[in-house]
Structures are given as structure tokens and as C-alpha cells.
Amino acid sequence: MSLQYQQPASDLVMSRLSATLTLSLVAMVIAIVISIPLGIFAALKRNTFLDFLISGVSIVGKAMPNFWIGIMLILFFAVVIPIFPVSGAASPLHFVLPAFTLGIALAAEMTRLTRASILEVIEQEYVQTARSKGQKEHIVIGKHVFLNALIPVVTIIGLQFPQLIGGAIVVETVFSWPGIGRLLLTAMENSDMAVVQAIVFVIALITITVNLITDLLYRVLDPRIKYN
Q1: Among 115, 105, 110, 113, which residue's Cα sits nearest to residue 62?
Q2: What mean pLDDT comes out for the span 179-206?
Q3: Band of the pLDDT at 201, cuts 50, 70, 90?
Q4: Alpha-carbon distance 13 to 62, whole Å?
Q5: Alpha helix (H) ranges present in 45-124?
Q6: Whole-prediction pTM
Q7: Contact, 4 vs 192, CB < 8 A?
Q8: How many CA atoms lie within 13 A of 47 on its CB side?
Q9: Residue 149 contacts residue 121 (beta carbons within 8 Å)
Q10: What is the distance, to the nearest Å, from the Cα of residue 29 to the centroid of all Cα atoms in its chain?
Q11: How many Cα neighbours within 13 Å face the side chain of 39?
Q12: Which domains does the chain have, with CATH numbers?
């Protein structure tokens, strides 16, 4: 039982879990849409100005803390140019700023990993063989390079998704998002240990589930991987 709300802690967590999961999923999609094309492009343009630019921006994006990114987005897109709302979760527009705040750091890390993975695969002999057979470059990149470079990317997605939920504590506070992040912060401030334990338990279950799905995806991406 929650000491603060006088109701079961599990009910409190489940009532707010969907808001946090939805926000994390949207942030993950944003990160994937941004990072994978940039990572591939940087790898194909290796050691050019565009490669250095993408890599530099990725390092800066990874270094910026979530709360600062959120404040800057609020300043530009809610104060200077009032386009997006800054609090609540009443409409799809409410997702834009908090989802980008969560997704930017992940996109930066995934961009660098995608680039490194593509560069590792593109030098393999089977890629050179495919090119020597006269296959078009986009087929070589899409079929032989990208698919074989996905396993490290899938791994980082599986590892980072639970961290997105943990990182939502700061983002939900900045944007007044009605998720478990704000609930956890309030529970900690009021020493409501039942709610804290319930949230930690739910995050642990999500982590186990995501890791299991990630392991299963390995088998789909690479049929050579077998689970005995």
C-alpha cells in the first residue's frame, strides 16, 4: 500500500506505465529513424567532411544531458517559436519535445555504432564477392552489408530501451509527463517505499523481457545462431 496515496502501489504504477512506455517507444523510433541512415551514410562517406560532421554531431549529442536538451527545446519550440506544448500528454503534439529529448542521446550513440558496424562488415570478403558479380551497390549495401551489421545495433537497442525508461525520470519532470518517472521522483521525496519497490520491480521485468526479445531477434537476423 502506498503511504502517500493510500492505495495499492501496483495500481498506481500500472496506471502510469502506459504513458512512460509510449513515450519511450516514440523516442526509440525517433532514434532509429535518425541514427541508422546517418550511420550508413557516414560509413559510406568514410573520412570525408560529411563523415567528420556526423561523427562530431554524434559526440556532442551524446555529451548533452537530457535536462539541458529539454530546456533548450522548450526555449526554442515553445517560447521563441510557440509550436509545441510543454506539459501533459493530451495529444500527439505533446510527445514531440519529450520524445526528442529522450531520443537524441540514443540516436547519437546508435549513429556511431551503426557507422562502426557498417565499416566492419563492408570490408568482408563476401561483400567484395557480391560486388565482383556485378550486383548493384544499393543491393550490396541493403542485402549483404546492412543486414549483417544489424546485430550490434539490435543489441544496443535492447540494452538502451530499459535505460530510456530510467532516463524518463528527468524528462517527465521537465515536461510534467504523467508517467512512472514523475511518480518515482514523488515517491522518493515522500519516502513512499512501496511505490519505489513496485516501480523498480516493473522496470526489472521490462528489462528481462526486452533482453529475451533481443536474443530471439539474433536468430532471425542470423540463421547461423542456434540456441540449444
Answers
A1: 105
A2: 88
A3: very high
A4: 30
A5: 49-63, 66-74, 93-122
A6: 0.83
A7: yes
A8: 1
A9: yes
A10: 7
A11: 28
A12: 9-221 (1.10.3720.10)
